[in-house]
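User: Could you go from structure to sequence for me? I need the amino acid at each position, not a summary. Structure tokens:
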């Protein structure tokens, strides 16, 4: 019997070109821009920034802290691995405290006792990943968390971080800032993130193994049915051009941040009980691709701003009517 808590993150030995993800600290924004945004003909390169969390209060978060602070909050944890064929997500709902116990010391091959199924499929197979809780930080009970980390990153000019006051925080409410808590074997298998955004994963507790491919490899990474490759275990006959790809890999440790430039494919595997924050954002490099997307979803934007306690008030007049409303005139 294999131990579901021991994860071998090795990519398939078939990949001919493998590049370790660089680890850096103390870079100026100019250096960062040159080496990780403009390099590779504008595709940039992923990088692990080892000192990005240094000033965050959130860097001291622990799983126990979450159990004590939000233990009663009900959460839905999912196994959404495409390794399960046919693809069938498995989801369970439970109090966060129950979920954290499962992550830290539960039997990962079955759902925690007392958890309620929320999907048609209910079978967990640890070889295909374990239950993973990730959720946008827009829930009112998590609002205090937004004060404990910062989207103003020292190494990159995040334009969202320049927004003033409430707006700066409200942007976390847009569907792009997630908290992730999971045990060994959680997997978010190969995808690229939305809207050509930049992505950071701030790994606060635990370790994860990340595999990335540059945007130019996109065509080689999909089979005839359009399914992305599982870079850790695949049939080369299904991906005949896989050898053209350049696989970047690295282990992200607690306290470190992984930066991914726009449109890089990634597969992230949890190695230990872990706690992370993911943020998607834009800079002058990707604003041209990001803004049209943002403007295409005005109702979603409104619905998230509505959840923000003070911005909500600003969206309505004293009678509760949605602003802007035409001012009443007598003429
Ligand atoms: O941390 C993970 O498990 C995956 C995160 C991810 O894919 C992302 O933040 O874009
Ligand atoms: Fe992602």
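Assistant: Here is the amino acid at each position, in order:
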């Amino acid at each position: 019997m294999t131990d579901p808590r021991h994860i071998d993150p090795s990519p398939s030995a078939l990949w001919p070109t493998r590049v370790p993800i660089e680890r850096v600290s103390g870079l100026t924004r100019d250096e960062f821009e040159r080496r990780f945004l403009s390099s590779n003909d504008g595709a940039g390169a992923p990088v692990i920034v080892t000192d990005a969390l240094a000033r965050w209060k959130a860097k001291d978060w622990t799983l126990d802290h979450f159990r004590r602070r939000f233990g009663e909050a009900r959460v839905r944890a999912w196994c959404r691995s495409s390794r399960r064929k046919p693809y069938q997500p498995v989801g369970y709902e439970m109090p966060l405290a129950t979920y954290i116990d499962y992550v830290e010391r539960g039997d990962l091959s079955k759902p925690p006792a007392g958890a309620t199924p929320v999907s048609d499929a209910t079978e967990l197979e640890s070889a295909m990943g374990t239950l993973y809780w990730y959720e946008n930080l827009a829930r009112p009970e998590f609002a205090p968390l937004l004060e404990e980390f910062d989207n103003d990153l020292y190494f990159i000019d995040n334009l969202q971080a320049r927004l003033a006051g409430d707006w700066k925080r409200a942007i976390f409410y847009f569907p792009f800032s997630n908290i992730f808590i999971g045990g060994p074997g959680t997997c978010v298998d190969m995808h690229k993130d939305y809207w050509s955004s930049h992505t950071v994963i701030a790994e606060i507790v635990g370790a994860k193994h990340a595999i990335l491919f540059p945007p130019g490899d996109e065509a080689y990474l999909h089979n005839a049915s359009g399914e992305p490759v599982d870079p850790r275990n695949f049939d080369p006959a299904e991906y005949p051009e896989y050898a053209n790809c350049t696989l970047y890999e690295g282990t992200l440790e607690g306290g470190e941040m992984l930066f991914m430039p726009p449109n890089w494919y990634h597969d992230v595997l949890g190695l230990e009980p872990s706690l992370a924050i993911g943020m998607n954002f834009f800079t002058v490099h990707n604003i041209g691709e990001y803004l049209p997307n943002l403007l295409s979803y005005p109702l979603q934007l409104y619905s998230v701003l509505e959840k923000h306690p003070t911005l909500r008030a600003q969206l309505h007049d004293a009678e509760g009517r949605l602003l802007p409303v035409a001012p009443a005139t007598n003429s």
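One structural detail worth keeping in mind: The helical segments are 29-37, 63-70, 96-105, 165-170, 287-295, 298-307, 309-314.
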